[in-house]
From TrEMBL:
Region Disordered: start-end pairs: 1-24, 441-461
PANTHER family: SUCCINATE--HYDROXYMETHYLGLUTARATE COA-TRANSFERASE (PTHR48207:SF3)
Superkingdom of source: Bacteria
Alphabetized UniProt keyword annotations: Transferase
InterPro entries, sorted: CoA-transferase_III_domain, CoA-Trfase_fam_III, CoA-Trfase_III_dom3_sf, CoA-Trfase_III_dom_1_sf
Provenance organism: Brevibacterium celere
Keyword Transferase: yes
Matching Gene3D superfamilies: Crotonobetainyl-coa:carnitine coa-transferase, domain 1, formyl-coa transferase, domain 3
Gene Ontology MF term list: CoA-transferase activity
Protein name (database record): Formyl-CoA transferase
Length: 479
């Protein structure tokens, strides 16, 4: 590690070890979230809430926990994918299908602001944890539900992953080359978009809850100042909450296929109005040119987007093609799209003789939007990401005796010009079970003596009265 990177690393580590200094920038501090989520969608929502201060208690099944722990596992017992998606959370092991597990979950619901789940529709209801039960325990709780196709409709009971949703939504039809089958992007984008919508929905309902409370308080204060104040019935202060929809009716209902469908822009309107059926266009964007990836000398590529009228002229001038810059047919985007092959050939020929750095230098001077097509190696060394705290180094076990210094992506969106520091990575399975259950009054080894809480994953003999919570029953069906 060179001197500059070492200094950066120590600065990042010092920040990560003192996250309390940044608490004032975490607007969700004081919010408690109960995450009943597996894989990526609900955990992404939980991660976003945790990143900005919410206490997220992640419930995992006995034995294996979240299956993401084993996805892309290179060594050890927990993948870096899990450590990344589940950062800043607490892991509690409970069997939701046992009576004791259900009771513990309901006690957590009683003390939580948000319940986040991504089971197949009907699963929580079968376990006696449906919206009516949750509302009885905590009338103010916010419920966020993520599933493949939503809680209603003829396909609601079907299982599904993001890959299915990406195809169903029309997204996959647009990805790849026109003469080849549709391809998959290299990340679970459907899960991530659904998770972001779920986090937004949760915050939206929290805002609505606080607005309702404020309205009730203001109405009560107004009544107290009126001539009828002495006859005021205190029960009327609670009238507004009784008028609101049930928890089932106001639950945030995120469907993976709809999350992807929502980012399809004018795909359906263009078909509805003009009969157009869009399909794959390779690295291009339908109807917009020039905008593509171009191979440079040395084997790496850049993206150049010259799709504005003025930008196009600057781009053509920069690559020594004034003839194209002044061509009457190319003065509008429609004309450029008709001649997209000519434009891509001209730009590609110019890039092929130059390294990425030179191409980007010329594009920057011409004020043409452009950027490298980066690898993971490029990202770790990127100055812009480093300047905004988007690469954060933390020590983590990778299955060997010693901890490793590993780079992780920072927290977005940025507040105040720099990413907030990561507090901790995704925890070990059950790492916080004893702590959380003790807080509920369940963590006792006998009738008189409180449990001695030890760091690390809970041991079965630590929690005598709730031993049934750790039943290794059949795996839970999450989708």
């Amino acid at each position: 590690m060179d001197a500059d990177r070492s200094a950066e690393h120590e600065e990042r580590r010092d920040t990560a070890e003192h996250p309390a200094e940044h608490d004032e920038l975490r607007p969700l501090r004081g919010v408690r979230v109960l995450e009943l989520g597996n894989y990526i969608a609900a955990p992404t929502a939980g991660r976003m809430l945790a990143d900005f201060g919410a206490e997220v208690i992640k419930i995992e099944r006995p034995g294996t926990g979240d299956e993401l722990r084993n996805w892309r596992l290179k060594r050890g017992t927990t993948s870096l994918l899990y450590r990344t998606i589940n950062r800043n959370k607490k892991s509690v092991v409970l069997d939701l299908r046992s009576d004791e597990g259900r009771e513990a979950v309901l006690e957590l619901v009683r003390r939580s602001d948000i319940v986040l789940e991504n089971f197949r529709p009907g699963t929580l209801e079968r376990w006696g944890l449906g919206p009516d039960v949750l509302e009885e325990v905590n009338p103010e709780v916010v419920l966020v539900r993520i599933s493949a196709f939503g809680q209603t409709g003829p396909m609601s009971a079907r299982p599904g992953f993001a890959a299915v949703a990406e195809g169903y939504s029309g997204f996959r039809e647009l990805v790849g080359d026109p003469d080849r089958p549709p391809v998959r992007v290299g990340v679970s984008i459907g899960d991530s978009i659904a998770g972001m919508q779920a986090a937004f929905g949760a915050c939206m309902m929290l805002f609505d809850r606080e607005r309702r409370r404020r309205a009730i308080a203001e109405a009560a204060a107004h009544d107290a100042l009126t001539a009828e104040a002495t006859a005021h019935d205190p029960s009327t202060a609670a009238a507004a909450p009784r008028d609101r929809p049930s928890l089932a009716d106001r639950a945030i209902d995120v469907a993976l296929n709809e999350a992807m469908f929502s980012v399809m822009e004018s795909l359906v309107p263009d078909h509805s109005a003009f009969g157009e059926v869009r399909t794959r266009t390779g690295g291009r964007m339908e109807g917009i040119a020039p905008s593509n990836g171009y191979l440079c000398a040395g084997g790496k590529s850049v993206v150049i987007a010259g799709n504005g009228d003025a930008i196009f002229k600057r781009l053509m001038t920069a690559i020594d093609r004034p003839d194209l810059a002044e061509d009457p047919e190319l003065q509008t985007n429609a004309g450029r799209w008709r001649r997209r092959d000519d434009l891509d050939e001209a730009i590609g020929r110019w890039c092929a003789d130059r390294e990425v750095a030179e191409v980007l230098e010329v594009m920057e001077a011409a004020e043409v939007p452009a950027g490298p097509i980066s690898t993971a190696e490029d990202l770790v060394a990127d100055e812009q990401l480093a300047a905004r705290g988007m690469i954060q180094h933390l020590d983590v076990s990778t299955g060997e005796e010693t901890l490793h210094d590993v780079a992780f992506p920072g927290i977005t969106p940025v507040i105040g010009g720099r990413s907030l520091p990561i507090d901790h990575l995704g925890p070990d399975l059950g790492e916080h079970t004893a702590e959380v259950l003790a807080r509920l009054g369940l963590g006792r080894t006998d009738e008189e003596e409180p449990t001695t809480i030890q760091p690390g994953p809970v041991k079965r003999d630590q929690l005598q009265p709730v031993r049934a919570l750790f039943s290794r029953s059949d795996p839970l069906m999450y989708r």
